[in-house]
Amino acid sequence: MNPSYYVILAAILFTIGIVGFLVRKNALVVFMSVELMLNSCNLLFVTFSRVWGNLAGQAMSFFVMVVAAAEVVVGLSIIVMIYRARRSASVDNASLLKF
Amino acid sequence: MTTLLEIAAPTIEYRLLGPVLIVFVGACLGVLIEALVPRQWRDEGQMIVTVMSLVASIVVLWRTWGPGWRTVGAMGAVSIDGPTQIIWLLILVFSLLATLLFAERKLGGGVTSFTPMAAAVPNSTLERDAAAARVEHTEVFPLLLFAVSGMLLFPAANDLLLMFVALEIFSLPLYLLSGLARYRRLLSHEAALKYFLLGSLSSAIFLFGAALLYGYSGSFSFAVIDAAIAAPSQSDALVVTGMVLVLVGLLFKLGAVPFHSWTPDVYQGAPTPVTAFMAVCTKLAAIGALVRIAFVAFGGLRWEWQPVVAGIAILTMLVGSVLAIVAKDIKRLLAYSSIAHAGFILTAVVGASTPESGLPVGQIGSIAGIAFYMTAYGFATLGAFGIVTMVRGAAGERNDLVAWQGLGKKHPWIASAMTLFMLSFAGIPPTAGFIGKWAVFSAAWRGGYWWLVLVAVLMSLVAAYFYLRVVVAMFFSEPDPEVGDVHVAVPGIGTTIVVATGAVMSVVLGIVPGWVLDLATSASQLLR
């Protein structure tokens, strides 16, 4: 097993997540991009856990899953609240706060 | 494989971790109160539980105060050392004051600053009915306590796993709290959305950095990462990239440029008590974690990160001070001011003036300087936001600076207190802010960054300009006839205590700073 393939895959997934975060307009899709970034981190944790032969990385990936689930609860409630008030979940429409 | 699966029962120093555990249990009790207690008693019940758990937490912390108690606990996951304890003390005291702002009802005519029903669409019949029925979200108190427990864990975390979990524990309640304003709810929703999306992006970046550091050292523990840096066996690219990404995550929470763009929007949109709480306690937790990770885990890479953080400190001071000059909203102005303060604090981090880098025992180094600076900043910030909640119009607070014109003639005491806080922010003697600036700048100077101190002093002058702008608006401008109804509401006991404590401490710490400086110096030894 050559770990560098997995590291490169994780980096590609992370980059797709960042690009998605920057270019997409729907708050749900933006949020999904963040989840993709978290999952790329999980892949990296599991890979390095295998490389080092200890379980710390795998334990971390469980924590990340739990945290991601908690983040979904909070995030979706905020996005639903915004959608109900504005009838739109576009992040570009949320632009009342500026100079 | 059998050896891998043997799990030894962990030992946990329950008494030392008491302050965190008590706050967490208090938060869980708050959730139970929401579920079981009838609505008319919930507010009193929540208030009692919140205040009691914070006070009990301070008492337990004080009973375990001192070098004899300090140790690395919970199987190396939590470092309960001097810096942790002093930051715990500050976070607990400031959250107690913030709780009083949360509970304030007299200013709003019997209602708090929080929306009666977050699920209702703004201006809908449902919302009006809820407001008329005096329905309330008393959940804000358990949310506050959950955030506090995360903030206590964050600067104490001695490995990346716990640090990530603590980061999320204190961030998630704050995302929700920022969306709960009673007035201008669309702004509040927007603040919550922006804070949530950018906050989760920054934690994902932090996590990727943590993964790379794990790949470099094979462990999450700061001590192991430090040892791996001292005896490198892996590619430098892993550790340098990992360090940069982790620092980005922490600098975002601190509100340093170029990761600051959420700060003004969130501070403006969030309910003012939440803004006050965030401005002080999030910054405290973030600077504590930043100091620990920079000095303990990346101490061996000091020469790599010092110039970068110095550049960020200069940018932060510059952008914060310059953009505050054009701010037209007092909360936005205070947000830019908090960005500038993050820059001033970072100068002490850059100086890295610790016993490990040759600081004589008993001298004020980076950590003691930061602790004093945050004490001065915290009292002034809570007091200033307390006054912001008092200046009101027909629908909630009047935050536009135009409405503040001529306040000094009608309400000289309130305007004088605000002036005192502005002078403390600007660092003008004999206020606490002056001693704070002197402490962090001397730490940077001792670390060999004299040019950074020169830039910082220049930036303090720029910052003084916009603080004085508020003073001039209050005392030397005529009220604008077109601003409509502006009055200073009579505050309840809670807000009065916050503003009075802030004003008294801003003066006392400026005239007799010795006891706090001694306390901070005696608690500035990082354990690893």
Write the topology of this structure.
The complex is a heterodimer of chains A (99) and B (528).
Chain A: H1 3-23, H2 27-52, H3 56-86
Chain B: H1 2-5, H2 18-36, H3 39-63, E1 71-73, E2 78-80, H4 82-102, H5 125-132, H6 140-156, H7 160-178, H8 185-217, H9 222-230, H10 236-254, H11 262-269, H12 272-297, H13 302-326, H14 330-351, H15 366-390, E3 391-392, H16 407-410, H17 412-426, H18 432-446, H19 450-476, E4 487-488, H20 493-511, H21 514-522
Antiparallel strand pairs in B: 1-2, 3-4
Distance between the termini of chain A: 54 Å
Q: What do the pLDDT scores of chain A average to?
A: 92
DSSP strand count of chain B: 4
Oligomer: heterodimer
Would you identify the CATH architecture of chain A?
Orthogonal Bundle
Biggest interface and its residues per chain?
A-B, 48 and 45 residues
Structural class of chain B: mainly alpha
What is the domain tally of chain A? 1
Q: Give me the strand/helix succession of chain A.
A: HHH
Whole-number average pLDDT of chain B? 93
Secondary-structure element order of chain B, as H and E?
HHHEEHHHHHHHHHHHHEHHHHEHH
Low-confidence stretches of chain B: none
How does the major sheet of chain B shape up?
2 strands, antiparallel
Q: Treating each run of at least 4 consecutive H or I residues as one helix, how many helices of chain A?
A: 3
Largest sheet of chain A: none
Low-pLDDT parts of chain A are none
Alpha plus pi helix count of chain B: 21
Description:
The complex is a heterodimer of chains A (99) and B (528). The radius of gyration of chain A is 17 Å and the shape is elongated. Chain A has one domain: Helix Hairpins, CATH 1.10.287. Chain A has 99 residues and is mostly helical. The longest helix of chain A is centred in the last third of the chain and has 31 residues, at 56-86. Chain A starts with a helix and ends in a 13-residue tail after the last helix. In chain A, 34% of the residues are buried. Helix content of chain A is 79%, strand content 0%. By secondary structure, chain B is mostly helical. Chain B has one domain (10-522). Helix content of chain B is 70%, strand content 2%. Chain B is built from 21 helices and four strands. In chain B, the strands form two sheets. In chain B, strands 1-2 form a two-stranded antiparallel sheet. Chain B has a two-stranded antiparallel sheet with strand order 3-4. In chain B, a hairpin with a 4-residue loop joins strand 1 (71-73) and strand 2 (78-80). The longest helix of chain B has 33 residues, at 185-217. Chain B starts with a helix and ends in a 6-residue tail after the last helix. At the A-B interface, helix 1, helix 2 and helix 3 of A face helix 7, helix 8 and helix 11 of B.
